Amino acid sequence: MRFSATGIIHRMQVQHLNPVQYQLTLGNDIVYMNERIGQPLEIQFLQEIYCVACGVRTSKAYGQGFCFNCFQNAPENSECIIHPERCCGHLGIGRDAAWEFEHHVAPHFVYLAWSGGLKVGVTRHSQIPTRWIDQGATHAILLARTPYRRLAGQIENVLKQHYSDKTNWRHMLQNQVSTTLQLKDEKQKAFQLLSPHLQMYVLPETEITQIHFPVLQYPEKVNSISLDKQPDIKSTLMGIKGQYLIFNDGHVINLRSFSGYKIRLSY
After folding, report:
1. Contact 67, 54 (CB under 8 A)
2. Per-residue pLDDT band at 94 (split at 50, 70, 90)
3. What is d(CA 251, CA 244) in angstroms, rounded to the nearest whole number?
4. CB–CB of 24/12 below 8 Å?
5. Which residues contact 204 (CB under 8 A, 6 or more apart)?
6. Can you give the pLDDT at residue 181?
7. CB within 8 A of 218, min separation 6: which ones?
């Protein structure tokens, strides 16, 4: 190991190129992760965790890197993040009305994507295609565009009775694909499932976005690593998909799950 970078984990930044380009910022260093694929890598958890919202040191992370107080009170972790159909930002109601207005009283998309299985999801307009990349989706199509989050959540709430709204991360990391999937046809099916007052938000576009990930070898069997249980990881990086690092022994780690953890990354 000739180089090391130390800092707090945040989600890897992505560029939608062919393949997706990944950057991990640790302190003052930017690690271009695609260049590390096929090479030995070591990740050491330095036993320090800092809240991604307020920056305070905490003994335990809640959600994806929050201290307990921010987990309970920060707008970034409000109920409508998981349940957009319950969002009241357009009514001026929320943990932080100004934050809600900026993030949730804005155009939102409902989409269908293949991420180890067909799923429906909601995301803010500025997160396309980042959201799909983070979920490890290989194909995606926009279904509907709404002026604020709650409406998009209502569409998703109808459709998740027929489509999953969760990513099957194991299938995604094994690169399970469908040879019969037709997203354009699925979009038409989804349209028919909606009531007329929701159909009005469905988009006419049929463009399919394809995403290619930098993976040399997918694991046959997926074994997830936790920095809490294995604070020193040494292996060869074989690829990156979603926010997961894939190693040559079939182990994987979702870096975003350990947001706020201070690590030393060496190679």
Report:
1. yes
2. confident
3. 10
4. yes
5. none
6. 83
7. 173, 174, 175, 239, 246
Amino acid found at 225 = I
- Tell me the per-residue pLDDT of 151-199, one tens digit each, with 9 for 90 and over: 999 999 999 999 999 999 999 999 998 877 899 999 999 999 999 999 9
Q: Of the candidates 142, 137, 143, which has an alpha carbon nearest to the alpha carbon of residue 117?
A: 137
Please say whether the beta carbons of 218 and 172 come within 8 A: no
Exposure letters 68-95 (e unless 16+ CB within 10 A, then b): eebbeebbbbbebeeebbebbbbeeebb
Which residue type is seen at 147?
P
* Cross-strand pairs, 141: 112, 208
- Read off the DSSP letter of residue 62: B
Q: What proportions of the chain, in percent to the nearest 5, are helix, strand and coil?
A: 30, 30, 40
Question: Residues 70, 63: contact at Cβ < 8 Å?
Answer: no
- State the Cα–Cα distance between residues 116 and 121, nearest whole angstrom: 14
pTM of the model: 0.94
Terminal C-alpha separation, the chain = 4
Q: Per the structure block, which two tokens stand in for 242?
A: 């979603």
Q: Which two tokens stand for residue 226?
A: 């936790």
Coil, strand or helix at 101? helix
Give the C-alpha separation, 198 to 175, whole Å: 33
Query: Which contiguous run of DSSP H or E holds residue 133?
Result: helix 130-134
Sheet of 208-210, strand order: 118-124, 108-114, 139-146, 208-210
How far is it, in rounded angstroms, from Cα 244 to Cα 47?
21
Both tokens of 174, joined, read 């094994």
* 109-132 pLDDT, tens digit each: 999 999 999 999 999 999 999 999
Domain limits, the chain: 4-57+215-266, 107-210
